[in-house]
Amino acid sequence: MTPFLVEYSGSSTRLFFRVFFTLVSALITFTGKKCLSTRAKLKLAQGRSVKLTLLSPWLSNFDSLSSITKTHTLPGGWLGIVMVAAFLLDRASDLTSALVQSVPVHDRCEFGTGLVVGDTGSISLVPWNGAPYTVVSQAQVVSLQNGGEQGIYRKANRNINFAADYEDVLGYWNCTRNDLAYNYAWNVPTQAIQSDLYQYGLLYGTPVSVSALSGNASTTHLVILDTSAGNQTHTVFDVRIAVDTSAFANDTKNMQCYQCVLHDTYDTLRSIQMAINSLETLSDWRQIFQGAIYDGSGTPASNNTGGILEQVLNSMTMVAGGQNYLLDTSHSTNTQGCLTNRTRILWELVLLTFLTAMTLALLVLYWIGMALWLKWLARSGDATTMLMIDEYTPSGPLGWMAHAVREFKRPLMASVEPADLSNWCFGKWAHGSGYGIVGRDEPANSNYADEAVSMGSANSFKKPGGYVRAVESPYDE
Description:
Layout: E1 4-6, H1 10-45, H2 63-71, H3 79-92, H4 96-99, E2 100-110, E3 115-116, H5 131-145, E4 152-153, E5 155-156, E6 169-184, H6 190-199, E7 208-213, E8 219-227, E9 239-244, E10 253-264, H7 270-275, H8 278-293, H9 305-321, E11 335-345, H10 347-380, H11 383-392, H12 396-407, E12 424-428, E13 435-439, H13 448-451, E14 460-463, E15 466-469
Antiparallel strand pairs: 1-11, 2-11, 3-5, 4-6, 6-10, 7-8, 8-9, 9-10, 12-13, 14-15
Helix pairs in contact: 1-3, 1-10, 3-10, 5-9, 8-9
Keywords: Membrane, Transmembrane, Transmembrane helix
Transmembrane segments: 15-32, 349-374
């Protein structure tokens, strides 16, 4: 399934889900307790008994699992399944950090200031030694590193998150390597190599070259460039380039040849290209080509020579089309392709969130339904019985503790609330027959085991305004 991407930061998204799961888990526990208590009261109001396992407190930790092995039944009946599910969902919510990830995605960002390629050309001799060349050349490298396109861009600047898409690319140079490669001895003159390659149709008639000289007057790192326009200007042109792939001056020169053609996607680069004096510009740029192809002295040509030639020719065209100017703000509010961070929410977390919310919704609806039913029975039933049910039905650990005290109370101390528990202790009976609940202020010879009465046989119960005589409990079994 496709993950969800949001614009919020990863830390904010993780915080949101942690708060969500914490609150929902607390609400599930609260609602679960209400469901257990209301269900028990509803059964009693209908004149039925309630199994003690159905009066289990809401277990929201490992006790929800361990109680199954101890009682050989689900705590709270079918609500025990919800207890276990809620516990597992709560533990699974700890995976939030792993299921929320910050990932880079392609987007459009505001351009700002930079070089903007126009639709007309006026530069004949394209500068190679300025900041504009450095910026447009680096922009192509950054775009490729960020998963974008390489080419002649509409706009370029120093944005390190730049990732060009097809909307940004006006066109591109494509350099295709010739399948034929020719070898020459280390001492063959450059002019002879140029003439030979021209005879094979791998160069035009006006080549310019650059090479590095060694101590014995031999050459290495030979690069030959030629233009189809020759000495002509105001015309479109292709470029042929021959590259020596060897590393040292005494190596056999292996000359690989490339045919480079400009692809004008939107027919906007023609005027820029026609304004360039291609022969003079290539002559000025030949050291740029050579320096980009090799990794320094004693190194062979790059395995990506074709891509490097394309990058330099793209840069040349952008510098010419952008008037060699880096501070253009005319398109500052326009956008360019970029790489931005988004927060990815995996579908597992979405499913976990949905199941947790549905668990809470199920419990809330179940509780509301039983509460309305119980309210209807209270209106139509015996008020005294309903008061006894509401008063004496234990709920949760404190409720059961209060009920235990009531089971071992004196007849005139019929009402014991959780708030009264501090008045009672668990200890040894005076006659030594066992341990049980004893009053904190009672004499040591008190024997509550002998005097205990059950809730069903109580002589009185608490009612607002004082103690009254109780009727026989309708759920005494």
